[in-house]
Write a structure and sequence with these properties.
Elements lengths: L4 E3 H9 L17 H6 L2 H20 L8 E7 L4 E7 L7 E7 L21 E12 L2 E6 L4 H6 L10 E3 L8 E2 L2 H16 L6 E5 L6 H11 L3 H20 L4 E5 L4 E4 L6 E2 L4 E2 L27 H14 L11 E9 L5 E8 L6 H8 L8 E3 L2 E3 L1 E9 L1
Parallel strand pairs: 2-9, 7-8
Antiparallel strand pairs: 1-10, 2-3, 3-4, 5-6, 5-9, 6-7, 10-11, 12-13, 14-15, 14-18, 16-17
Helix pairs in contact: 3-5
């Protein structure tokens, strides 16, 4: 390898130019937005009329901002599932919007390596085409073959034309029902309209945190070292996203193998585990704390406003919950100082390394309170509050 790694996304950008996305065709220039361009086609226009309001309400029910500026799609072949994750700020963690049932599976587990092998690819891709006139209702094209595939697949006939599409049939693509592709197509179109040119699609052989799926893959790769190595590299990307809900940096070496960077930019890694670095929180030296007061500290807007603040905080933090955990109760202690500034936050119960610092970071940004009053003077008062993350 000579120590050379190819950056994954820049390489794939070059590959995508071999097949121009529909969105990049010159006819788009006459429209004010990508959404308006899609509305010029009958099927996307009809889908938007029927589905957009429903999607908006689904986002509202999950306390998500509509439309999503960034989406991430990951699919699991053996488990026949496709997840759609969303967010609106680049530094925020992704949050799960919906899981779709994939209609059918062609081929078996393992990557696609040649034309007409009926295999669904496995690896790291992005959407490079919106097809509003697909033979399978609506379709979203993937940039197969990517940089890895071009090294490891058949040199002359690696295959192509891999889509996520409707009609619920497949010969090597990822099929959904027409109702499902309506939603996914609209979500992707809005994200592209808002500037996400490369919508990532990660395709895994299995859910690596499901025992039945792991057992199946283990039996399949028991005597296939090459497939085992390939699936293990994909597992690294799966584990990274499960931990941080952010996308890993994926590169391709000169042998065509994926290299997953396990260290996120906002985290550090020691010898035992990947954790956030030590964060300096708002600490003050407070010599006197009042035990009894004539008036407790007041959050701006009163108790109801504080409850609304905590509810929104818990919802916003839900993306940090580990897989399989739907709700946690975190007890937090802090002090409202004499000037009303909340300081000295500490997690007492229910916390985990995955989200303790992030929770405190966010709580430190709460507005200034009215301080507690004792004998007509402001005093520092300790508060203990439970935050429900769900």
């Amino acid at each position: 390898m000579n120590g050379i790694l190819k950056s994954f996304f820049p390489v794939l950008i070059l590959i995508s130019s071999l097949k121009s996305p529909l969105a990049a065709q010159s006819s788009v220039a006459s429209y004010t937005s990508f959404i308006d361009y899609q509305k010029s086609f009958a099927r996307p226009s009809d889908a938007l009329k029927r589905k957009e309001d429903t999607l908006r309400k689904q986002f509202e029910a999950k306390h998500l901002m509509w439309p999503a500026k960034y989406i991430y799609i990951r699919s699991f072949k053996y488990d026949s599932q496709m997840e759609v994750w969303v967010k609106n700020e680049i530094r925020d963690p992704f949050r799960l919007f919906k899981t779709y049932k994939v209609c059918a599976l062609a081929g078996s587990l393992g990557p696609k390596r040649m034309r007409d092998d009926y295999q669904v690819p496995e690896g790291f891709y992005y959407i490079n085409e919106f097809n509003p006139k697909s033979n399978y209702y609506l379709s979203l094209g993937l940039n197969y073959p990517n940089a890895s595939d071009r090294i490891l697949s058949d040199s002359y006939q690696p295959g192509g034309d891999i889509y996520i599409h409707g009609s619920c049939v497949t010969v090597g693509c990822i099929p959904l029902t027409d109702n499902q592709i309506d939603e996914l197509y609209i979500l992707a179109a809005h994200a592209k309209d808002m500037g996400q040119d490369f919508i990532p699609v990660h395709i895994f052989p299995i859910r690596y945190n499901v025992k039945r799926s792991l057992n199946f893959l283990g039996n399949l790769t028991r005597e296939d070292a090459e497939l085992k190595n390939f699936s293990t590299r994909l597992e690294g990307a799966f584990d990274y996203f499960e931990k941080y809900h952010q996308l890993p940096v994926v590169m391709v070496d000169q042998k065509g193998e994926y290299i997953v960077d396990q260290v996120p930019t906002r985290f550090s890694k020691d010898q035992n585990a990947a954790k956030r670095p030590s964060v300096k929180h708002r600490e003050r030296s407070i010599s006197i704390l009042a035990n009894s007061v004539h008036q407790w500290p007041q959050f701006p807007g009163g108790g109801d406003a504080f409850m609304e603040y905590l509810k929104k905080l818990g919802t916003d933090m839900s993306g940090y919950l580990p897989e399989g955990i739907k709700k946690v109760f975190v007890q937090v202690e802090f002090i409202v100082d004499v000037d009303g500034v909340p300081v000295n936050f500490k997690v007492l119960k229910g916390g985990r390394d995955e989200y303790n610092d992030e929770l405190i970071d966010r709580m430190e940004k709460m507005p200034v309170w009215q301080p507690a009053i004792l004998n007509d003077k402001p005093v520092a008062k300790k508060m203990v509050q439970t935050v429900t993350i769900e």
